[in-house]
Amino acid sequence: MQALMPVEEALRRLLSAARPLGIENVALDAADGRVLAAPVVARRTTPGADVSAMDGYAVRAGDASAMAALELIGESAAGRPFIGRVEPGTTVRVFTGAVMPEGADAVVIQEDTQREGETITLTQAATPGRHIRRAGGDFATGDLLIAAGHRLRARDLALAASADIAELAVFRRPRVGLLSTGDELVRPGTGAGSHNVILSNIYSLGALARRAGAEVMDLGVLPDSMEATQRGVHDALAGGLDVLVTTGGASVGDHDLVAPALTSQGVELAVHKIALRPGKPLMFGLAPKRDTAGGDTRADDTRAHVLGLPGNPVSAHVCALVFLVPLLRALQGETVPTQPVLKPARLGADVKANDHRMDFIRATLAGDHEGVPIVRPLPVQDSSMLSVLARADVLLVRHPNAPAAAEGEPCVFLALED
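RE: above sequence
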């Protein structure tokens, strides 16, 4: 019997072949969730000049003691600076964001003043530099603001915009095709019989892939015939995909046709059967390089990655978290750890000794102890039961051959959602 490949080795093989995809420029309003292919460098200094941080009066601190009376000579508002200079004994009304007038070195907030006509009496003394935002206090021209490999968030887009940048260079989104197999599968809402299984993987896997930045295509459901499976794989690989994900038919039974169909289309399977639970039948490989003369518009020559997931919905979901999501991140050049991040916790119940497979146990978070989460395994772990997966908060990870552990002992978990 062929030995099962350890999860760590399977991940290493999967990610070793992943290269960032092509680069494209996108407008800021289309850049949310994209991964930067080039650093964001400031094109301007912000603030561009010393500005007031409060509504009040711009003064010379040297002649702005408590109860000093100053002559009001004008005002400075955001976008409408005062043209002139604050001389001894004078002041300028300023508003938040307004450029500080020449000669002034402090702001007295309006609550600390009294006004009678054009005379301003200070009830508090001014402090040099008080309530002023200095030029370049946020960033200066040429500053590195965001490094390449960073997945952009809403606040990153605001930062880029404030640096006078309208477009960003980002890695292309991976194009993922989801191909389901099985005579038993029917779409939800179509009136399934008792002999049918309602297709669910397409929705969970599609959501995970989109959250990881991919464009997702539903390639339909194939019947359990070698001819149909080969044709479906051929057509999928001819469609310019970066990643083909199949579900079902990944084992070695009479109706498990995906592996031979893939190899018949030239896919080199680097892995078939991994030492994890749930999801042992997982397989992946690389498709042949495509002939771009057929209309393929891809700017890169990356070979399509093929990931064959089990049909059981829980197994497919776990395998997608452990393998598909890291692959998609690597294809986008993301610099955060692409491999699953295991977080420390403590057991909320006793667990048995583990066998030779890495076990991903559906579990809930049951509070914490001194800031460390407590993870409690759910009592049922059947890989076909989506209700258990939906009820779980995390996956308790048990390494191969881990000994039995008691409640309160250290453990690690993988988050189910980002």
